[in-house]
């Protein structure tokens, strides 16, 4: 009588560097690629180890204490040992991941609160009960992940695969205010880092014209600016939508400072208080690209693209009254 095969006994990695999607301008094509939504949160690896659960950030910090709902939910999966790859997120009312909500749950920038509202979007399985799965193709790892996370399990749910037509999915994702999509090669093993090109990300980008209502002086270069303060139109007036601090060269920064100093005003064009802000008459608009809107209607990841007089640029962004 033959002996049963020995159970797998691959050493469990202490830490795995995440596979990083390569940023490209359009999704890859072909049946060998699958596509999913790009989630907007903290990339994490969840380790279930003998007697311990660790939740490692991309920088290698253990945040198991800060994500108590995820730590509790992973216990219910029934695995003795595992490593899940995914994203810690907080969802808005429309079910979209919102990084600003996640930051708020963690206590803001530099905060130390525990984010009980955080959920894990699981999108890969790297190790399970003595088996190192990284050498196996993505399609096989996905089948094992689906068997493990069969349905929405408390604070853990699967990132759905949404077909092989990346171009259509990308367009729909942008129309719905999502961050973008990630495309993954079905036959590829798991590679740490961004080489070879087995995961690809394509980001949505919005564009609009916003009125410049002020600026902040640069502390590093006293004759330059550090940020522009921006406003959109709403119900015949102006409402503050945040500030932008990237996109210009040193030469452009100096020119902006000289131009805006000519229209300084002691009156605030919008209801906002910012220490050290210099307010200006709303005579100029800035072309801005940005990722999305935050919950409190501020621009997320804005970048400056150019400037024009307001009368030469009538298409200033207008926020609907009900928003």
| Helicity level | 10-25%
Structural class: alpha+beta
Mean pLDDT across every amino acid position: 88
Low-confidence stretches: none
Shape: elongated
Number of DSSP helices? 5
Amino- and carboxy-terminal Cα gap: 73 Å
The topology string of helices and strands comes to: EEEEHEHEEHEHEEEEEHEEEEE
Strand segment tally: 18
Strand percentage lies at 25-35%
- The Cα radius of gyration reads 24 Å
Largest sheet: 6 strands, mixed
What does this structure look like?
The structure is a single chain. With 323 residues, the chain is an alpha+beta fold. It is built from 5 helices and 18 strands. The strands form 4 sheets. Strands 3, 4, 5, 6, 7 and 8 form a 6-stranded mixed sheet that branches. Strands 11, 12, 13, 14, 15 and 18 form a 6-stranded antiparallel sheet that branches. The longest helix has 12 residues, at 250-261. The model has no long low-confidence stretch (mean pLDDT 88).
Brief account:
With 323 residues, the chain is of the alpha+beta class. The chain is 15% helix and 33% strand. The protein has helices spanning 68-75, 99-105, 138-148, 166-175, 250-261, and strands at residues 22-23, 33-37, 42-49, 52-57, 82-89, 119-128, 131-132, 156-158, 180-185, 199-203, 206-217, 225-234, 237-244, 277-279, 284-290, 292-293, 299-300, 303-309.
